[in-house]
Amino acid sequence: MLILTRKEGESIVIAGSIRITVLDARGDQVRIGIEAPRSVTVHREEIHEQILAANQQAATTDRSDVDLIKPRQPARNRPQQQRFRKPL
Amino acid sequence: MSTIEPLRVATTRFGAIEVQPAETVLFEDGLLGFPEAQRFALIAVDGDSDLYWLQSVDDGALAFLTASPWLNFPDYEPDIPDGDREALHLDSADDASVLCLLTVDRDREVVTANLLGPVVINLKSRLARQVVLHDQPWPIDARLGVAPC
Questions:
Q1: Count of alpha carbons within 13 Å of A33, Cβ hemisphere only?
Q2: What's the pLDDT tens digit per position in B90-128?
Q3: B36 touches chain A (CB under 8 A)
Q4: A73 touches chain B (CB under 8 A)
Q5: Residue A57: its H or E element
Q6: What is the complex's ipTM, to 2 decimals?
Q7: What is the value of pTM for the model shown?
Q8: CA distance A35 to chain B (A)
Q9: B49: number of CA atoms within 13 Å, CB side?
Q10: Do A58 and B76 lie within an 8 Å CB cutoff?
């Protein structure tokens, strides 16, 4: 692991296009700002690990699992309405 | 005029299948935990169940069972982050298809959907992404088949 020490307001640049800035470091919390190209995903580690584990579990489904799923879906009697919090 | 060759994929669940390249979707970053798996085919389970297999074209053993979330969770209202929308070149809800990965626990007979990390597909650009809905209240393991309260 590369270890660097930064003061508030100082930054680190990764691969030329990702900038990490220490916004403030007070008490036991550090606020970190991340600027990155839109294609670069940034997640808190805990969420990353959770989703990764869920994906790995989901990857074990097989064709017989469909029999458990179908009875748990309501009968579709009207087109489903997609809902997004903000318009796309 | 040259014809486009279908892709032949040796899958573990369906045997050998043929997939039209134009019908595949591309995850530029793969899925979390599977960064190399970029090209997928969507295979409907049958005519009316709203279940789809997301079958990797690059890895025949890798597939996910997915469903549109609104059938079981009509109040689901994801807020797709701007960075993800831009990465998908998504500018209309009409072009968007949202599928949630399903996990099946056969022993406990429980089926759950990951509403926290849905797969969002732009049907026009054929780009896809697993979007992480930071700080949104959707569960990673929403149970299917439970009566709404």
A1: 10
A2: 999 999 999 999 999 999 999 999 999 999 999 999 999
A3: no
A4: yes
A5: helix A45-58
A6: 0.91
A7: 0.90
A8: 11
A9: 18
A10: no
